[in-house]
């Protein structure tokens, strides 16, 4: 245990047994302090969209194909020419120091060990360069909560570029904080600083609620910002939070190099559709012009399969990986990704698919 | 506490913490006497329509639009040229003295403080003029339960006009009382008088059940009554309780100046559709000829958004506001409306809308 | 209490408070011996069809029409030229002595008091003539479980005709007993005799299970039996148990004077549709050539309305009325019918309908 | 009780009371050791497909036809010219020694007594010849988990042929083990040997988990294997695990003599459709060219009816029969099949069908 400002952080470092990703939540709840756990686990309003995110995978079914003559399914794939061992990626998520003393340092290390792609949040507990270093050369993306202060934005983008980030994820669905009741119930303020704020802004985030943090960010985000960020960073820009074909086309028209279909894990707008329920329509509109990352609701190997078969190139998740971080540090993170990838490989073999390309070409059934 | 005829009324006067509107019901149940609470909270028959009213908002989803370049959403709007700070309005609701010693006096004050529109019920605990005065110049509508006795109707309409009411709401869906089991279980009779009955009729309502009260009202209400009421009041007439395109057109053809889509909060006909489920069809028929008010089931900011995007110009609610009244008097009422408007503003920003007009032009998704 | 063969029968004679028809079941369970209660309440297999019967009324909604200028709704109607005060009818149901010492005698008296139509089962606890007499001139139908023994059939039909029955209901959906688990769990055999068996067959039914009783009845029932029964009885014949347009047309083509849409209250075939879900298709096929009676699932005034609006001329039910019989004898029966008719009148008024003809012409909504 | 390697097996030999097939699970859980019970009862991942398998039968309804003039329904039918008394068949299921000391010996005897068709699993606790002998001349099929080792395959197929098996079932949906959480939770390894492994392979399966067992089997199974197996066995080959029209046509094109629609009782791919939900589309594609066997989810007589009416020629099940085996040995097995066949006969009679051909020609309703 590490104590920071009266907040107790785990410092577990071990591989963990993962029965399934859902079961990790109750285990993590026992060891993450209440406010931090509520911040990580909670959604907005009555959590309808949060629950629907996972439920929606039951709206379609995988048609298994037998006599396919396949064995030993391969999960390696690539995005922007970057090779990864698995299409499972770490979603950008703030303040992972809430779950573990080492925060994103350990997440990056565990993700790297799994051969997966890491993404860092602007509101990380650890700095861009430190987190990148922990990944030991493994690919990482940097997520930008665009600030009203363009000096801040430029500093972050430059550090990301210099540290070796491969792309910028521009979050577009969080121009104000969703109404997250668990934070209200717990009267939650961040007990620990955010490294990028400490380094490049006046405050360090500590003692603030997520509402205050987001208030410093830009509310007005428009298509022109994509180009501006691309120019500063000199990296591909992926627009995160897209939930409609119209927005996907708008973003691509404005220069986006990737589309990230997400509803922020049900933490922002409640009463919107499950992220999975809009994926295939967005993918049809995108029509392979740029890659698609998908998150919000993935908990099972069969979900990974269904998302890829609906048009995603990579699938991302955060909560279960953060629970793995709390329970086992870098090795816990690794255990979670490995478990999910194992479930996914089982699904691939049983569905009669050998490669990620085969999965993407699978037809789902709506019954 | 104020005691009237053995009935204990709260006299709380304070702003309250509102986690969400649904959570207020259990808090209010602790402090409103059982019979009064049952009268306020109950629906008819097995409450199917009552429950469906809120559930129906999940039948469609908000498609959030990112990269919209908006900030600081504005909720001000207008109806009949009257400006209000929010599209959220107080539904007409009887006997608010059941919840608080000051009854509608405090409701009107709290609604005025929120910059919202107040409506008074014929069966109010306080008089038209007193309630209007409490609003301190803020706009109010008067709701008429049309009596068989036209002297009674004329007296009410004249007092409303003189006191400054801006429109008359003619309730058309309560020509007999719905079968409300909670009132039967509690053997509920009104323990406190109704000011307008005291003033203009023979009895004051005290000691009567809602069935007896409604029996004094007219059962036969027809299109011609709209014109008659308009002539007497010299005010716009809004027909409340409309649930079909046919009835909307009938009312407009007979001179109605507004349509109020409602199923009386699930308190009248059970086994009819959720109010929200019929809104868009009614709105298509009305086609902007007159304004539309909507109530029945609104509990969340996302519900306000969905109702406006389905054709409503204003949305109304009563139960949660009455719970706010019980818990905090005028300031409690204010707290509830402010909370709901805050949830709504969050939804507006996350959906990429800046004005009420933007919200109305939003397309919803059916998944 | 009356004790017969160790079976304790109530002899309550009083009007009862009916909160709603569903709530009667728990009250009746307290006073009807376990085996008898299980026989009355149970359905077949896992009760899917039994539950769906009532749930199905939520598949469509009543569109209330306001400004209809109606008051004082009238529930009187007629079938085969017989006037009744309500479209609510007693379904034929066996062995009502299980619920009350007076059995069908009291049911007939209570139904007559309510101005409703009574139907008697072949397997009644009381004789055709005695039950008819208890009705004191009020209209009754006689239901035939057609026996393999045509002497038995003839004796019954003649007694029915002589006693004044107005029509014969030929049950066609019970050529073998449904698999009713509650009877198996309770190892249920009829503890009391069946009057018609006592009079016209070798055994009296006592000590037998429903399977044995049904085994004495004909398994093979065909279109030709309709004519044969008509000829013997000289009365209109209504075919009960019809659930498809094809069967309705077959029965009418073979001479049926009425169609009785029913799935035997979910007691026979499980895994078939809710009775209400097939009503409108059957009604379309029948196209007013003969009257339609409907049962299976009716518990609310809104259900009565929906069934009539879907093509029924009369609606029938048994279980809740038998519970009323157990709780209050003839007056209990009366209380139940009156309560349901009151709920129905409330629905009529709120829907803007004045007559049964108006109800039949109402359009329902599918949302 | 018989104890093998610390694992306690029942040796009950008696007919049992079967209320319904679902109720057997809780009874069996009391007497089968935890690990063995978990192996038998469990499905994969979160059991969605397992539950949906049975739930799916409610997606369509049986339209009962009255006035059909039928009695005494006959359940006898045939497949490949083999006559059976019932269309209900034993699914191939591994390691029935987990449930009973005599394992498949007793299952075969009970199935034979019921006049049904037995199928043996490659991973049986008892040998092909012994199990066949226990059936005393009654028809049996042999199921092949195709090994990587073709000597093993040939040995099995030859023993099956010599022992008198009538067909080979080639399982194609288990090229890797589904992720079965109950086995993980129980850390389950087979405590008892598998007779065919003992006889023809290096290990006997004891002490291994199902994952290890499946790993010895072939992962690559293709259309050509059908022909190869046919040639070795000289028997018809049925491909098991088909869930799509495409795969059915592929298998038939490659020489399959029968199609076995199944999702392995929800034990393999989770997130695929209920087996029943794909049956009718597969049947349309097969178009009577070869017979269809169906399993996964059958628990009721009405399910048997619906599966046959959707295109199956035989329906199979395993879990409830294995529970009967645990509770009563051969006679327990017999009791379960008899009970299910009795429920099915009741359904046949109530639906107005006399023969299996009538059932197959019945139209189902989708409401």
Architecture overview:
By secondary structure, chain A is of the alpha/beta class. The first copy, chain A, has a single domain (2-366), classed as Aldolase class I (TIM Barrel). Helices cover 42% and strands 14% of the residues of chain A. Chain A contains 15 helices and 14 strands. The first copy, chain A, has helices at residues 23-31, 34-41, 48-55, 104-113, 128-134, 150-163, 181-185, 195-200, 210-216, 223-233, 245-253, 275-286, 301-309, 319-351, 356-360, and strands spanning 2-4, 7-9, 61-62, 77-79, 82-84, 88-90, 118-120, 140-144, 167-171, 237-242, 258-261, 292-295, 314-317, 364-365. In chain A, the strands form four sheets. An eight-stranded parallel beta sheet of chain A has the order 6-13-12-11-10-9-8-7. A two-stranded antiparallel ribbon of chain A has the order 1-2. A two-stranded antiparallel ribbon of chain A has the order 3-14. In chain A, helix 12 links the parallel strand 11 and strand 12 (292-295). The radius of gyration of chain A is 19 Å and the shape is globular. The mean pLDDT of chain A is 97. Chains in contact: A-B, A-D, B-C, C-D.
């Amino acid at each position: 245990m590490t104590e920071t400002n009266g907040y107790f952080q785990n410092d577990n470092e071990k591989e963990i047994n993962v029965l399934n990703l859902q079961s990790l939540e109750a285990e993590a709840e026992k060891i993450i302090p209440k406010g931090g756990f509520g911040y990580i686990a909670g959604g907005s309003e009555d959590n309808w969209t949060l629950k629907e995110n996972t439920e929606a995978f039951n709206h379609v079914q995988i048609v298994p194909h037998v006599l396919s003559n396949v064995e030993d399914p391969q999960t390696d794939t690539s995005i922007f020419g970057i090779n990864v061992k698995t299409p499972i990626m770490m979603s950008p998520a703030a303040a992972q120091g809430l779950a573990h003393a080492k925060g994103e340092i350990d997440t990056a290390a565990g993700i790297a060990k799994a051969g997966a792609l890491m993404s860092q949040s602007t509101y990380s507990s650890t700095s861009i360069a430190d987190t990148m270093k922990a990944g030991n050369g493994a690919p990482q993306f940097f997520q930008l909560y665009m600030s009203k202060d363009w000096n801040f934005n430029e500093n972050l983008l430059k550090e990301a570029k210099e540290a070796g980030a491969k792309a910028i994820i521009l979050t577009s669905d969080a121009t104000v904080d969703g109404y997250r009741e668990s934070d209200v119930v717990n009267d939650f303020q961040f007990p620990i600083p955010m490294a990028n704020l400490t380094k490049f802004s006046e405050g360090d985030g500590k003692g603030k609620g997520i509402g205050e943090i987001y208030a410093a960010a830009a509310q007005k985000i428009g298509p022109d910002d994509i180009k501006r960020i691309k120019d500063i960073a000199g990296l591909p820009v992926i627009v995160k939070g897209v939930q409609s074909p119209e927005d996907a086309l708008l973003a691509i028209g404005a220069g986006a190099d990737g589309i990230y279909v997400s509803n922020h894990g049900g933490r922002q707008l409640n009463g919107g559709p499950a992220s999975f329920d809009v994926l295939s329509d967005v993918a049809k509109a995108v029509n392979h012009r740029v890659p698609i990352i998908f998150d919000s609701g993935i908990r099972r190997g069969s979900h990974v399969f269904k998302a890829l078969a609906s048009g995603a190139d990579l699938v991302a998740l955060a909560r279960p990986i953060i629970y793995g971080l709390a329970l086992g540090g870098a090795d816990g993170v690794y255990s979670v990704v490995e478990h999910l990838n194992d479930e996914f490989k089982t699904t691939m073999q049983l569905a009669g698919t050998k490669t990620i390309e085969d999965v993407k070409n699978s037809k789902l059934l709506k019954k």
